[in-house]
Fold these 4 entries.
Entry 1:
Amino acid sequence: MHGRSMNSLARTAGLFILALALVLPSAGCSVGGIAAPAAAASELSTDPATAQSTVAAGAVSVAWDADDLHANWSTVGSTRITLEGESISVDGRGVVVAGNVATITAGGTYVISGTLDDGQVRVETVDVQAVQLVLNGADITCSTSAPIYVVNAEKVVITLADGAENRVADGANYVFEDAETDEPGAAIFSHDDLTINGDGSLTVTANFNNGIQSKDDLKIAGGAITVTAVNDAIKGRDSVAVRDGNVTVTAGGDGLQANNDEDAEKGVILIEGGKLTITAGMDGIQAETSLIVNRGTIAIISGGGSAASSSTSLSGNAPGGPYPAGGATADSTESAKGLKAGVDLVVAGGVISIDSSDDALHSNGSITISGGELTLASGDDGIHADASVEIAGGDISVTTSYEGVESTVITVNDGNVHVVSRDDGFNVSGGNDGSGMMGMRPGQDSFSASTGNHLAINGGYVSVDALGDGLDINGSIAITGGVVIVHGPTSSGNGALDYYGACDVTGGLLVAAGSIGMAQGPSASSTQRSVMVNLTSSLPAGTVFHIETADGEEVLTFAPTKAYQSVVLSSPDLEDGAAYVVFTGGSSTGTVVDGLYSGGEYTGGTQYAEFTVSGVITTVGSARVGPGMQPGGGRRAPQ
């Protein structure tokens, strides 16, 4: 029998383990110029004193007015629009009917019900009052344009009446007013701010292009909304904000998109509630600038999922392709990522599940994760940012990826991170992401080594299971705290730790097992002691590796998930001048998580070696180091 009932490594680990215009010329739905009558009084609040707002992380803010959040309406003072197949009747004011087109010309509340076989509801006001469209059992089809088209308005709120089922569908070909315009371009299209709220349902079928689109801000505060679109499902040029509701989208292009690339404060998406279920041929949620997730439940399948790698997902073979006219096309600028931001991606909460052929989380700038439950499966990177990734909380599980977490700078301060990768678990490199391009393998990004590249682990819990390098750092590593467990490669061309420069360990717990050919341990510049044990032959996956003191006190009991020949341990429990014994095989009655045993007793192993800790770095057994490598000192600089 070897060891005590509670190992010191488990005490260090503690409880770290596991834890978002035009006039229609067709015969089907056309209307001439309308002179606006006197405006009806709006029942929507425009008083700033009643407004409510939410400020997201960083500099992103979205104001929620009272009329956004409260789906109140009354038949008193409102205008009724009754759709009667091929005709429309109106009870009230503020509406002009021409054939099968009803044009709303003034602010106020309009209650719409019935079926319109081939026509349009237009909003074209000149006053500064909001327009509320109450869909109370409305079924609107237009074969040649947008069934609901906001040409001009101060603001439009679409309220889904309680219990009402509503439907909007367009045709595959639009007829525009002239050759100079391509608008409207969605089944529900607005040039101005658009909000959807209420407790009813809305089904949008967009056969031409996009599903629901605003050229300004688009907000969703309620309702059961289902959108099927050949291109983008839900699109707001300036912003998209989701506060509540149950949104299900199927898109040939992006699921949600904000695409203003002319204003640094716009092109924003904020998810702070509700439920989003997205199946997209391209990106699940894509923001030109900032994408913030504070709360809510998000489930995304993009580009056919992780089984379809980023090099093939846009070839037309993924669900939703080949894409029809007006939908996605396969060129080198397109991607099929889960959450994608042009500047910064922030996850502060929520439950997020992503299965993507391209990166699951992607930013051309930075990614910050401070909370939430994330389950990520990717055909390329689980998490990729061109500039930096910071993890300060949350439960993150990358269940499959080419590379798990990738950026120029990666910092882990807190949180629970589990990574499974077909290549590197953590990859610190420099350059822009090149993945997702046609003809390129996943992970084939343009990177270079740089003195500015680094990995810092200051706290939290990190577990890596990698077929390539466990931690592949084209720069330096600094570990000051937390728990780091690496189940590394079996190939001699990779290592559990692979870095340029230095790997300084000053605190925390590091356990790394893998092949021996490129094995590295921490640098001599570390202040916390480490031991590297190199075995004479490879041991099968699951074979227990055990270290205890000369007095039988357990220091480490670990069962790597892959065959291994080298094990690195850095722990505050290693004492200078103290003697230790290494055993292999045997079993433990303790609790095992990520291969690390806590509690219980270790028995039945075979003694492999004895060693005494001498200095900061101790090596047991001969190291077979690959070309250009220095044991415990990082790679030699390339000549």
Note: The radius of gyration is 30 Å.
Entry 2:
Amino acid sequence: MTLFLLSLIPYLIFTIFKTKKSFHMLQQNYYNDDQRYFKWIITNITKVAYDSDILFVLIALTVFFETGVTIGAFIILYGIIFLSYRKKKVVAKKPLVITARIKRLSFTMFLIYFIMIIPFLLNFKYENLVCAYTLLGLVTYLNYFVVMTANVINKPVEKCVYYYYKFKALKKLKAMNIPVVGITGSYGKTSSKNIINDILNVKFNSFATPKSFNTPYGLINSINNYLDKFNDIFIAEMGAFKIGEIKSNCKIVKPKYGIITKIGEAHLETFGSRDNIMKGKFELIESLPSDGLAILNMDDEYQVKYKLKNKVKVLWIGIDNKDADLYATNIKLSGKGTSFECVFKGDKNKYEFQTKLLGKHNVYNILSGILLGHELGLSVDELRRGVNNVKTIEHRLELKKYGNINIIDDAYNSNPVGSRMAVEVLSLMDGIKIIVTPGMIELGNEQYDLNFKFGEYISEVCDYVILIGKKQTKPIYDALIEKKFDEKKIFVLNDVRDAFPIMNRLAQGNTYVLLENDLPDLFNE
């Protein structure tokens, strides 16, 4: 019995380690909402099925040996498996957050394993060792599914917890009676939220949902734990994967002001169609009260053509379309950021603004903030000060210095639209232009084609290209060669750290380097 209990130590350590990994995937997939976690398992079934702990089957072979051999084999095997897991260096962009829900899930997992082990302890026989070890190994091997089962078991509890905190949030928000600004869109939500918050804080004590808290759980958490009695405006980011989710968010926060950044093809798979994406995003605008205000983008064809089902007041921003209520012109980018002029409808004056942010898409986000601030009573001088105070957003076209090199850090993530915008930003810079990128991932069957197009954009702008990962960046390399880009100016590396000596060597005078996609955070201050 004592040897058996001792043999469980490496097994339990490994099981805890693997369960943490499963929890991380569950959390990233919104606790299997709309079967996202299950779909992730199916999509990654090769990784899930061919895991190193499948070696537990070797335990069954020890049935022909003595008990000591079986116990020894079990200890050694799980020790080796655990060490092999520890050697895998995976940098998580969003690490597991140990929330109260994860703690409740951990307790349920403990009960599942305890219920499974207790019969062997109560009726312990050495001849049952192989059976016990095989069962234990099988359950841990199927850990992703066991976690999914625990999540199902906890659903009634989680529903009660959700309604308790939802009621608490509704009560608090009603008592505060402050205006709420809702922000949604296919991309640019977080940037827009932060920009508008910085602008409004010149005059108000506004509060924006932290990080990417854009789900019902995130909004409830924000209200209960972050919003305080001194705030007089609440800015709520709203995300969605399907029709009805933004409407559910609106029932919680009841926005008076609504802003749609841009409508694209993000989450097309879960929405089902582009029309559904439009309908889903416009749930925000159609949830506004009759005395509310919607701020929309006149340069976005999807927003322009949508037929609103309510009579809320609508104001438009634009850059290309001069019929907008507020449009930007004379946009200039430099190493200090972006400058542009604003024109309000009915006002012949042009008002100059300066921001540390880069990119045309950020000008759109700033225009929304300017127009909303103007409607809320901010003067032009206050708006200028607010725009000038807008903070750069970490790893999202963030301008930094690396020695004598200007770094455009867009390492947070990359998608077909964002990567093209980033290259456009680089193209507007005056000097040597270098890109460092591992390409784009998780694009399904279109991954090669979209990366190939990305390579075509790069070939038109960059003087030098540094690719990270030979296999991953092959489509980009193929596009560069097809476009007759000088092969001597292409560098293919396995480790991004090797790019920095090359960057220093290539730098001449005014040099700009675009870091595109999720590179290690080497430039964090």
Note: Residues 140 and 352 are 62 Å apart (CA to CA).
Entry 3:
Amino acid sequence: MDKKALLALVLSAAVLLIYQLFFYKPATQQKPASQEKGSSAVVNPTVYPKGSSVEPSVQSTVSKQDTSNSPISDISLDGKEQEISVDSPLYHAVFTTKGGALKSFTLKKYHETLAANSKLIELVNVEKTMPYPLALSFPDSSIDVSPVAFYQTDSTNIDLNSTRESRRLTFAQTWPGKIKIEKIYTLNPQKYAIELEVRTYNLSNIPLNQEIALYWNQYVNPAVKEDSYGHVGPVSYVGKNVERESVKKMESNKLLGPDVSWGGFESKYFIAALIPQNPSLTSIALSKDSSNMVSTGLKGPKNIIPPGQAGFFGYSIFLGPKDYNILKAQGVGLENAIDFGSWLKWLAMPLLLCLKFLYSYVHNYGIAIIILTVLIKIIFWPLGNKSYKSMKEMQKLQPKMQELREKYKNDKARLSQETMALYKAHKVNPMGGCLPMIIQIPVFFGLYKALLYAIELRHSPFFWWIKDLSEKDPYYITPLIMGATMFIQQKMTPTSADPTQAKIMLWMPVIFTFMFLNFPSGLVIYWLFNNILSIGQQYYINKQA
């Protein structure tokens, strides 16, 4: 292959990699709401969530004065907060009567660091004056219902560790002569997903104009530097497109939708997602206030609840890791929250599934990466052979190419014509060395995405000093060895007659070593062993020649 073409190929790959790392930000699309603000639609207020235990026959009317049918016993005092602890094999949650919301949610299987005394991952982060996540609001409602109102509950603590059955946690509050609201959480000990049913009873003498909104509120510390490799902030799935918002660049208010499959708040490896029952009728409202509270709210359609009638609204709330299999099982496209990229997803996902399959046998993701590298090299072995042979043939033509350059240095058209004739006479394809390498570049970027965002590698050890494959090598040993193997590979590759180009190519190992210093060690291990296998293949081709 012509060294100019090879140089262009390598530099292009480097530019793409640098762009992906430091400059690429997923595009966000702002979609207009289906209804203008102030418009209303009369809909059937009785909306039954999937799996709801409420039958049509028991919800038709509600007494305006009598609320004794409520399962709530008044054991919490208005104006005083009461906490309800929920402990399961997967998480420990703390709910509060303040807004009937979520005060804490820690994941038992995930720690912040590798330290023995490291804290568990906490998905809730709000300041004292802020409303908690899962607070309700009724924008444009004819009745003012505060998201920080104190609810009543009959539960204190719920232990799910010794049962496989789901348990219910109910909050209720009544505004006499106006409205009664019940929030019923269904907690499954074997799932990260929590079901939420909201019941609103119209106790007034007039129709209730209502638009329900469920919010996930999160405090974002402005002093914390944004992660270069992972997004921390609002994320949503609108119209089958993932929308991400930079917290620092957020507008004060933004409305997306309708057709919202889910929305919430994410970090690199974890997500809190609100999933509506009716995506086609749901919009998502994003906002950030002066106290750096970021709110992601699911807004349902405007509806009218007649006097004595009730409205029922269903949600699922996923609070957990970005594990592909777990997210996929939700059935709402939540697996798209893993940032594989729109044009690399079709490669990254199969590679990740292959990696998990190999891990199920070897029980070490570092070894699984090496095996996967070998398998990829075997698949591309014929293409690699063709590439190296083509470069070898191009090297043989360098003296004749130099003669043509000297002979036709003032006639570029004739030089091009004679060069192509030379290639044809010796049956050499100038692109023969490039095309096989170009085909392999998407595979590298797909695996790069898979290894960079796979939670499976988080805190997963390899050997000796590498305790976490998702973090950089603490001693930079693997990047330096990788750079050395790249230098050896360069020396074995057929060289150009142009000394300037040859010197530029020798700088590539230095550039790549510098780039890989802060890469996750899992990705460096892949590139290192890929280089070792390429050196072996190059040696084999050179020996045959």
Note: The longest helix spans residues 521-544.
Entry 4:
Amino acid sequence: MSYGVNPEFATTNRERIFRYIVLAVLVLYTLRLGYLQIIQGSEYLQKSETQAIKQVTKEPFRGCMYDRNGKMIVQNSTSFCVAITPNDFNPETIPYVAKITGLPEDEIRKLYEDNKKYRFQQAKILRYASPEIIATVEENHEILPGVDIVVETKRVYDYKGNAAHLFGYQSEVNDDDIKNSGFYYKQRDVTGKTGIEKYWDNYLRGNKGYNFVAVNAAGQAVESFNKGKSDVDALEGNDLYLGIDTKLQEIAEREMKSDHGGIVVMDPRTGEVMALVSKPDYDLRLFTGNNFSEVYTDLSKQEDNPLFNRAMQTQYPPGSTWKMLMALAAMQEGIIDEHSTISCPGGYNYGGRFFKCHGVHGNVNAQRAIHVSCNTFFYKLGQQLGIDNYFKYGDMFNFGKTTKIDIAGEQSGLLASRSYFERHKITGNLINGRLVNLGIGQGEIGVTPLQMAAYCSALAMKGTYNQPHVVRSIYYRESKHLEKNAYYTVELPINKSYFDVIHRGMYDVCNTAGGTATNVKVDGIKVCGKTGTAQNPHGKDHSWFICFAPAENPTIAMCVMVENAGFGAERAAPIAREILNAYFHPEKVQSEIDSTSTKNNTTAQVTNVNGKHQ
């Protein structure tokens, strides 16, 4: 058998076809090689030079805040930050970077060392960079590897006044902030530290975005990694719609002037806070620069402590503003009814001590006792009520605990109980002795203006207690819908008819001869209120006033507390009157403001002419 080549297979045609195929393959390879080298050569050269993938953070805009009338009052503006990427940064350039930014060399070196473990993540070293700094960094990019300008935001406040303790300030995160955020925050990020900014931080901060960029050995961006498919867009923070009335806030701040104290104004129907003021305060705009440490240190060293939130953190006795609670408790417990009277001969003897009253009131019932603020009535009522009932009803109105308002920093105050006294070795008749003072809101009791405003709102609504809150609804950026926020409402277990007695007594305080706040008049509006003068062992008494209006259908309730200002009618009540006027007659208040502004402008023009400064 022969295994030679078949002469019929190796024909001329087959040979020609084979040669064409080989030629075609060579042509295709040549064309492909030319395409890769000539057309895409620069792209592959960049890829060959790529040394790492750099993560560039895109900061989200923080959520904005709107007042109850839809006006944007807290928003953002663009700012710029100097940042370093540890993997690319050359430590030998630290002296030059320090010269450009004005930062100490040790501070930059520490930031670099602390962030080495995050090799490809940018670490901020200077925020709110000036145009001069930005230009210098950009011009020297080649000799400053790993130093970049990053876009971020800062807060802008569009209202008159401060509202510092309401909105709160922002500052750089600490280790606890980073951990509590689930490591969302990195060093040198900014977070809310007080007020609304802190409480609602998770909603306001948004979600960071990330661009992934291929960089070469010099740290320069070569191209977008994976053609940008791996990038993550930043998501802006959610917007908050508040119950705050900007005009009332401004008026309340103005009326407090240089006094020390707190004001809380609420809508008793919903629990929405329409104004919250603590004085002295500070300008939040001071915290939107690079001198945060200096500003904070200066404020913390001031004797009048402007950082202290007197609207939510004080612990002062409420004085006579407490008397309505005592009357309600006694009526609900069946100790008295609306017709029951107690004799006031000008005071009350107990334990060898005479507790004075403001006058000799004779036989008074609950309404009259509130009207003339008869201490004797409530001295005796306190003892008849007993410590357990005293605590029961105080606790019912949320005294001795927080109201759970959605502002960071609230304190609970003090409401004495039987166990409290026993811990302090006070028992039996000694507790009865304490109840004399407790009946008129003195002694072992400490409240905040916020608690008192919520209490006054519950009185106005005849036992419906609405949780105080500032945020009425949230605009969720991701789903693009506005959602009303939910808060708790409690119907207090007190007969509503007893609140009618309280309303009549508080109406008399402001509208009937002998009342302690007849100087609180508002055209066409029936105001119900109660003054209080809280004893202060360290100086002049504290001035309290709570009120609501209109009497027949309350839409506003408030508490005004002024430290060391004497009788409630002298200082606190007139402040409340101006706030009520601004609420019910805004056109009149605006007219007065415009008139004052025109007068001031005229005076200024005359001065300029006379002083030849025009």
Note: Confidence is low (pLDDT under 50) at residues 45-50, 600-614.
